[in-house]
Amino acid sequence: MQSKDLLQLAEQFGSPLYVYDAEKIKSQYERLTKAFSKVEKLRINYAMKALSNVAILQLLRDLGSCLDAVSIQEVQLGLHAGYSPDQIFFTPNGVSLEEIEEVHALGVQINIDNLSILEQFGTKHPTVPVCIRINPHVMAGGNENISVGHIDSKFGISVHQLPHLVRIVENTNMNIAGIHMHTGSDILDIEVFLYAAEILFDAARNFKNLEFLDFGSGFKVPYKKDDIETDIEELGKKLSKRFNAFCAEYGKDLTLIFEPGKFLVSEAGFFLAKVNVVKQTTSTVFAGIDSGFNHLIRPMFYGSSHHIENISNPKGKERFYSVVGYICETDTFASNRRIQEIAEGDILCFRNAGAYCYSMSSNYNSRYKPAEVLWINGEGHLIRAHETFEDLLRNQISLPASVAKQ
């Protein structure tokens, strides 16, 4: 997409505004499938927690993607978007047996990440195909909040508990269809990923009737110029060769599953915000925008960096600005960042805003959530309207006058 297209969309739909480029989502999907083209059976389960707008789900469905869901609500959204139950994979963490039973009743593949639920579910449903999430105790991820495979993580069943796990499976005569792992997001070193894969292969040897191995995802995307990213092509070459060798050893062509979220949608996303005020202090020039961490929390939550450009003045001389929001506490998107000269009323564009941006937004300070637009075939299509005051009041119940006066 070009700056002129984004400016036109900001004028048409208002700001703040999320925009997603369908062509970039498509090219990322094709890049991943091409990297693993040497694998006979490949399945991509889009991790919909990254961006769960129904229109995005439908776009990915049409590309051939399946879904990875982490809540029953995400499962229901996937079904609403036209996915069949067998195209949805349920990978929750710490949910109740009741929620797992609800999802099972919908016909969706279940992934279980703790011994307690595994034994309870297996005792009740020994013939139902189940996947097991293994914690490989491999540290990966760009931030402690997104590193989920280390030894102190709440996610998965420890590989050191494998004898206990096998005993539960044997005692219940469960049907184990797959083994799953996820080391964390923002994987920088593919050798670490390949090392974790060997742990998964070792665990898989304990189960004789597997249908698939799920390697999770966590592929890093570039957030700024010359940024490091996961070498998908190199990973595809090395892991495909090793996976095919394991299948030959196992005596069966298993399905190789990935569950990318950020990799597919991050670079496709743009967040547009208008500058409300340019404020000079004794040491800093602030650009205050019509948004805050209620709309884009990643910089405050993860310390993440989003490239910011002034698309209203793309050829302007660069100056140093701290870009801040309107939330009434620390609300900083960038500190002393070089950005084209900013004037009040300009539109700033935050790049890489497709993953974990709108999906983590809130109504903090009673602010409305922004609209979402999908740019497809050279046109912008509104896929979520701006919220209104009525949306804030929805589901709230005023006290009866007789109670309020007590």
From TrEMBL:
Gene3D superfamilies: Alanine racemase (3.20.20.10), Lyase, Ornithine Decarboxylase, Chain A, domain 1 (2.40.37.10). Keywords: Amino-acid biosynthesis, Decarboxylase, Lyase, Lysine biosynthesis, Pyridoxal phosphate. It comes from the Bacteria. GO terms for biological process: lysine biosynthetic process via diaminopimelate. InterPro entries: Ala_racemase/Decarboxylase_C (IPR009006), DAP_deCOOHase_LysA (IPR002986), De-COase2_C (IPR022643), De-COase2_N (IPR022644), De-COase2_pyr-phos_BS (IPR022653), Orn/DAP/Arg_de-COase (IPR000183), PLP-binding_barrel (IPR029066). Signal peptide: none annotated. It is an enzyme of class 4 (lyase). Pyridoxal 5'-phosphate binds at residues 218, 356. Substrate binds at residues 298, 302, 329, 356. Residues 23-266 form the Orn/DAP/Arg decarboxylase 2 N-terminal domain. One of its GO terms (molecular function) is diaminopimelate decarboxylase activity. Residues 18-354 form the Orn/DAP/Arg decarboxylase 2 C-terminal domain. It holds the Pfam family Orn_Arg_deC_N. Its EC number is 4.1.1.20. Pathway: Amino-acid biosynthesis; L-lysine biosynthesis via DAP pathway; L-lysine from DL-2,6-diaminopimelate: step 1/1. PROSITE patterns: ODR_DC_2_1. The active site is at residue 328. Its cofactor is pyridoxal 5'-phosphate. It catalyses: meso-2,6-diaminopimelate + H(+) = L-lysine + CO2. Belongs to the Orn/Lys/Arg decarboxylase class-II family. LysA subfamily. Homodimer. Specifically catalyzes the decarboxylation of meso-diaminopimelate (meso-DAP) to L-lysine. This is Diaminopimelate decarboxylase. It comes from Flavobacterium seoulense.
